[in-house]
Specification:
Blueprint: E1 3-8, H1 14-24, H2 30-40, E2 42-48, E3 79-85, H3 95-106, E4 111-116, H4 131-140, E5 144-146, H5 164-172, E6 178-180, H6 188-197, E7 201-204, H7 213-220, H8 223-236, E8 242-243, H9 253-263, H10 269-280, H11 284-290
Helix pairs in contact: 6-8
Length: about 290
């Protein structure tokens, strides 16, 4: 079965390099990602744009918009990109320049959507500072992907990353589709309700486990851990709005696919691993056709 991994990283972020070496034991390069894609029949990935100007500074308040996949000189052909947004640079005398650069990048065919790092940046997603971003998303018919749940940095503030904040946003911006990353973990039941209630909200299942095989085995064999997510999936009952993602390099793709297969009932695998991505990201059809 072909797979689309809608949540990976390929940016020169110090914490990603460290995780790849110390925890997941993956080859954090484009070649390493390509090898994992080939091994697991992954036909396309979507990278979440993010940059840091100083080593270890993620989330870096000085990073210019749009943030991209800067581990390589260009986006590899087997990837698309969600451009990352630094809201701290959307206010002030240079705001228009920042927005112009974001809009120019959105016109590139390899760009699939927009990524907001809620929690990492201390703004609620319904804050007016993001309004021009949602206008651009509507104009170019691309979804807005939103980090929710625990942050991979002690400098994040969890109140900004709670999935319930997406409910108010979805109500305000019915013309834009949104994706809740990480199913809002640990607030997965709240995220499940936001997905069930709002026709323009989806969720991905990425980043729920970080590490190598011994780490995955420990959690996959813990019923309380697995039921934490299964309960939310059953409650939401919208498998057509759940998407597969790994958050690579936080985990090897084969292990993560095995984990999600255990979570999601088999009759929904083709939707979650492949079909649902086409409904949320309109541009991927053309990208896949060009491969």
């Amino acid at each position: 079965m072909p797979i689309i991994d809608i949540h990976i990283h390929l940016s020169d972020i110090d914490s990603f390099h460290q995780t790849a070496v110390d925890l997941s034991k993956v080859d954090y390069t484009a070649a390493g990602l390509q090898a994992e894609f080939d091994k697991n029949d992954v036909v396309l990935g979507i990278g979440m744009g993010v940059t840091e100007q100083t080593k270890g500074a993620f989330p870096d308040s000085t990073s210019p918009n749009p943030m991209g996949l800067n581990l390589e000189d260009r986006v590899p052909p087997f990837l698309m990109e969600c451009v990352g947004i630094n809201p701290n640079r959307l206010d002030g005398k240079h705001a228009l320049e920042e927005l112009d650069r974001i809009e120019a990048r959105l016109q590139a065919p390899e760009v699939a959507g927009i990524k907001l790092y809620a929690g990492y940046y201390h703004h609620y997603v319904y804050d007016k500072i993001y309004t021009p971003i949602y206008e651009l998303a509507a104009k170019y018919n691309v979804p807005v992907v939103i980090h929710t749940g625990d942050t991979y940095s002690m400098n994040g503030l969890l109140k900004y990353a709670h999935p319930l904040t997406v409910d108010e946003l979805a109500y305000q911006q019915r013309g834009v589709n949104f994706m809740i990353c990480h199913l809002g973990d640990p607030w997965v039941m709240d995220a499940a309700e936001v997905v069930a209630k709002n026709p323009n909200v989806y969720a991905d299942l990425s980043g729920l486990v970080v590490g190598d095989r011994p780490h995955f085995e420990r959690f996959m064999n813990e019923p309380l851990f697995m039921d934490h997510f299964r309960r939310a999936l059953v409650y939401s009952d919208h498998y057509e709005k759940m998407l597969f993602g790994t958050d690579w390099p936080l985990a090897p793709i084969d292990l993560y696919a095995e984990f999600v297969r255990r979570l999601v009932p088999e009759q929904h695998h083709e939707k979650v691993f492949y079909e649902n991505a086409f409904g949320l990201f309109p541009r991927i059809q053309q990208r896949i056709a060009a491969l």
